[in-house]
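FORM 12-B: Structure-to-Sequence Request
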């Protein structure tokens, strides 16, 4: 924008009353229907690129999970879940009827450990919590193993017999080479520990567990999105097969079911055998990195300063506009900028110890509380503003101005989230033939003839084989199974006269498992996603109705336990 234009914009803002000014700031966070449509096209393009080669913008990391649970899994498994904010140590009892019992201990990860000098500090903390969990819930198992270690009697055979399989949910960006092997590519969210980058998360954890002589063997490395997908498939089988596991929490990401025939970058790997048309693998998209080049994402001056000051500048732009870690930080930056303006949209003045002066000190729950107050006097919102920001005398109009801006930041996050959901749905082909806007002049037509019939029977085949088909190493050929469910086949009717490819009520639904504080608690988050989905021509109101979004109870922990359980060696 030219200096003259900026000047005239500043002049016009000066003459606005405070609420109009707040609305003007809010408009900077507006996302048009056109942006969402173009964004979806760009997302599908980047998803497709990630199927062909490593190192693309959307990483499309193979998870080595080649089947999903069907709800009949039974047994007890342990999981450790390291998220962006909390650590959870869990014991999950799978009842075999889509339900589970969870025993867990949760701790906030201290900020100092997120940027510790060495990975040993962070993983030592995880191991100590795991030890405390075992002392409380499995004291006999722990003691007897420690006696064996003390007597110097550990043998490979005893390790095989005595060590408990453990699923490790690691909610960061890693490349995966087998179900229990990976390599941390880079940290995201508020984490930054140099010597961890390039190392295997399973090995770092195993080293710390062994140091404390805990009878545990890390048998599955799972991104939280993959865990959420597995947990959702376990908890809601039958109605439809789950397509996507998505997280809208401290960070954001999604993992979805992709056909092996499409994952061309795996075809040249040593040991790859043609898995047949039926095979699929769950891919971790790492969609937080979408549009690294910023060709479609809207950018405000607040996004720019946030990015520059972050631990990962010029990266994770999509995540920085969507996820919980950043929404409070964006609002903090808006408030500070307004306070320095000659005509601010509120008359707040912060004390020197106010959190407004501390980066990342405002949680997205602050925005939720302000937006959630629909009373005429905004009592609750004013109290919260006063408490969290340490400001005195918050007027109704101050709170109303903040509400308008917080709402706009949240709505932008939700509308942008729709791009990824729509992109995965389009890529899956479950909606049939679709035309997408790719940019000003390009158009792309995506067609998946007869896809629904194939996908449905493929997945039903694979579901039955979940238990036997997640392995320590990659055995795609094992996915082949003769056990096509007769019951499943009879659910289908195929009307070739009309050229349609299904029809079953169950199949019509596209199921998505979602986890994360924004989706669960941010007022209107799902509603805004749905509005945006309807605006995308490739989805439209009919497609939007077919998309079912639901939480997966205890998603990432239960998912990791399920995958570890299935990866046990016979
Ligand atoms: C990480 C992902 C993770 C997501 C949600 C992102 O910052 O890169 O691996 O799935 O957060 O927790």
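FORM 12-B RESPONSE
SEQUENCE OUT:
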């Amino acid at each position: 924008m030219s200096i003259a234009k900026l000047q005239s914009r500043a002049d016009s803002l000066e003459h606005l009353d405070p609420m109009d000014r707040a609305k003007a700031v809010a408009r900077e966070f507006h996302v048009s229907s056109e942006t969402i449509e173009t964004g979806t096209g760009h997302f599908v393009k980047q998803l497709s690129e990630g199927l062909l080669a490593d190192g693309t913008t959307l990483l499309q990391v193979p998870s080595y999970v080649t089947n999903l649970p069907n709800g009949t899994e039974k047994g007890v498994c342990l999981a450790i879940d390291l998220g962006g904010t909390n650590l959870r140590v869990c014991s999950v009892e799978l009842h075999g009827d889509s339900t589970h019992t969870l025993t867990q201990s949760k701790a906030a990860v201290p900020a100092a450990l997120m940027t510790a000098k060495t990975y040993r500090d962070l993983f030592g903390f995880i191991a100590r919590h795991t030890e405390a969990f075992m002392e409380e819930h499995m004291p006999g198992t722990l003691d007897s193993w420690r006696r064996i270690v003390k007597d110097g009697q550990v043998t490979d055979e005893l390790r095989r017999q005595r060590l408990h399989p453990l699923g490790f949910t690691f909610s960061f960006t890693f490349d995966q080479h087998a179900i229990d092997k990976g390599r941390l590519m880079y940290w995201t969210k508020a984490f930054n520990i140099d010597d961890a980058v390039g190392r295997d998360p399973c090995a770092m954890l195993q080293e710390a567990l062994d140091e404390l002589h805990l009878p545990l063997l890390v048998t599955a490395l799972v991104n939280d999105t993959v865990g959420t997908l597995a947990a959702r498939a376990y908890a809601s089988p039958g109605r439809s097969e789950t397509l996507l596991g998505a997280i809208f929490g401290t960070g954001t990401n999604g993992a979805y079911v992709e056909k092996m025939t499409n994952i061309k970058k795996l075809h040249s790997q040593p040991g790859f055998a043609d898995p047949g048309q039926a095979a699929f693998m769950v891919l971790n998209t790492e969609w937080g990195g979408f549009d690294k080049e910023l060709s479609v994402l809207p950018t405000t001056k607040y996004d720019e300063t946030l990015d520059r000051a972050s631990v990962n500048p010029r990266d994770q732009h999509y995540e920085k506009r969507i996820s919980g870690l950043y929404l409070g930080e964006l609002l903090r930056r808006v408030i500070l900028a307004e306070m320095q303006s000659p005509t601010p949209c509120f008359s707040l003045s912060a004390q020197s110890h106010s959190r407004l002066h501390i980066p990342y000190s405002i949680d997205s729950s602050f925005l939720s509380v302000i937006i959630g107050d629909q009373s005429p006097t905004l009592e609750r919102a004013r109290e919260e503003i006063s408490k969290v920001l340490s400001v005195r005398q918050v007027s109704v109009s101050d709170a109303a101005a903040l509400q308008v801006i917080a709402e706009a930041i949240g709505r932008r996050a939700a509308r942008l989230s729709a791009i990824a959901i729509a992109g995965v749905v389009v890529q899956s082909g479950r909606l049939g033939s679709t035309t997408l806007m790719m940019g000003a002049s390009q158009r792309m037509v995506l067609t998946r003839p007869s896809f629904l019939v194939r996908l449905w029977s493929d997945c039903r085949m694979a579901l039955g084989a979940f238990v036997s088909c997640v392995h320590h190493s990659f055995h795609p050929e094992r996915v082949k199974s003769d056990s096509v469910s007769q019951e499943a086949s009879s659910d289908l009717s195929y009307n070739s006269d009309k050229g349609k490819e299904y029809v079953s009520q169950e199949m019509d639904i596209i199921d998505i498992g979602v986890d994360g504080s924004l989706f669960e608690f941010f007022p209107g988050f799902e509603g805004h996603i749905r509005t945006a989905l309807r605006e995308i021509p490739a989805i439209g109101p009919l497609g939007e109705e077919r998309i079912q979004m639901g939480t997966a109870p205890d998603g990432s922990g239960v998912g990791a336990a399920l995958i570890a359980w299935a990866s046990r060696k016979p």
